[in-house]
């Protein structure tokens, strides 16, 4: 039986903006191969597959890109929570994912239905010099084009991302990378995306996210990477918690997205966004 696939745009109130996500709210009976086939047919960066858990509000969610399963996906989580709330009512949800337990809240806002996820505890680690050099070579960037105030680092909050900060907005805007070379490096380091950022102000970032492991050149909104960025900023003392930063993404792709990242003193990072059905 062919499952019903919903299509939502996350981190936007415009169906033509944000990041499209596929959502299967009843994935009961679908095996790995079936879920992978659906995700490949949908063709979005991720499709979420939901099965109800043993308790009210407990859901098991798996995420598949067109080419592989990923442990966690922020934009598909936001889209799934909004779609679930529209059909079952707004309530706190506990999402059991491959990355761990993710709490989600939904609410009505002036911008439409919104959801807030709280990530698993973030973590970070240095990136080896040789790996950084390889990433920069694949991106066709140089070390001189990086912002020294935001050091390169691998950050995670459900999935692993290499955070690289451009010194200028122009450097971030001009993205033309070697897809296969970057994919090989990311496979070796178990990275889901690169979190390429430019800090426009103390609480404002622009981001771009190459996603070669999923077969996607660039993701227009990446909630998991935004959560990882929040953990990175807290770990390195680059914000004073509790803090909130906004991340603008997808502009260069014609799908502008807005992600709000709440950074508490301890624990998981909160990522908030709206989501709307796509026409």
Low-confidence stretches: none
Number of domains: 2
Dominant shape: globular
CATH superfamily of the largest domain: Diaminopimelate Epimerase, Chain A, domain 1
Determine the fraction of residues in helical runs and give it as a percent range. Answer: 10-25%
Q: What's the SSE pattern? A: EEHEEEHEEEEHEEHHEEEHEEE
Gyration radius from CA atoms, angstroms: 17 Å
Instruction: Give the CATH architecture of the largest domain.
Output: Roll
CATH topology of the largest domain: Diaminopimelate Epimerase, Chain A, domain 1
How would you sum up this structure, described in words?
This protein is an alpha+beta fold and 279 residues long. It folds into 2 domains: 6-118, Diaminopimelate Epimerase, Chain A, domain 1 (Roll); 123-274, Diaminopimelate Epimerase, Chain A, domain 1. The protein is built from 6 helices and 17 strands. It has helices at residues 32-42, 74-88, 129-139, 169-173, 179-189, 223-235; strands spanning 6-10, 19-24, 47-52, 58-64, 69-70, 93-97, 100-109, 112-118, 123-125, 153-156, 160-165, 193-201, 204-211, 216-219, 243-249, 257-263, 270-277. The protein has an 8-stranded mixed beta barrel. Strand 12 (193-201) and strand 13 (204-211) form a beta hairpin. Helix 2 (74-88) crosses helix 6 (223-235) and helix 3 (129-139) packs antiparallel against helix 5 (179-189). The chain is globular, with a radius of gyration of 17 Å.
């Amino acid at each position: 039986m062919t499952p019903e696939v919903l299509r939502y745009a996350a981190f936007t109130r415009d169906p033509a903006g944000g990041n499209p996500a596929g959502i299967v709210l009843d994935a009961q009976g679908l095996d790995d191969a079936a879920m992978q086939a659906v995700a490949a047919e949908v063709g979005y960066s991720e499709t979420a597959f939901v099965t109800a858990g043993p308790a009210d509000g407990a859901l098991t969610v798996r995420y598949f890109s067109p080419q592989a399963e990923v442990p966690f996906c922020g934009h598909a989580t936001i889209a799934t929570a909004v779609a679930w709330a529209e059909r079952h009512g707004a309530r706190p949800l506990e999402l059991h994912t491959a990355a761990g337990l993710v709490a989600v809240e939904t609410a009505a806002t002036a911008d439409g239905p919104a959801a807030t996820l709280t990530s698993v505890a973030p973590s970070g680690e240095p990136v080896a010099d040789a790996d950084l050099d390889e990433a920069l070579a694949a991106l066709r960037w140089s070390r001189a084009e990086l912002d020294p105030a935001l050091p390169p680092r691998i950050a995670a909050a459900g999935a692993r991302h290499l955070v690289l900060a451009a010194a200028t907005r122009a450097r971030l805007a001009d993205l033309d990378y070697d897809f296969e070379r970057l994919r090989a490096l990311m496979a070796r380091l178990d990275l889901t995306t690169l979190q390429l950022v430019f800090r426009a102000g103390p609480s404002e970032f622009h981001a771009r996210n190459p996603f070669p492991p999923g077969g996607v050149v660039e993701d227009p909104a990446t909630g998991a990477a935004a959560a990882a960025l929040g953990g990175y900023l807290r770990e390195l003392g680059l914000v004073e918690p509790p803090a909130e930063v906004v991340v603008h993404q997808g502009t260069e792709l014609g799908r502008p997205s807005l992600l709000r990242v709440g950074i508490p003193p301890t624990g998981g990072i909160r990522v908030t966004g709206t989501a709307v059905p796509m026409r």
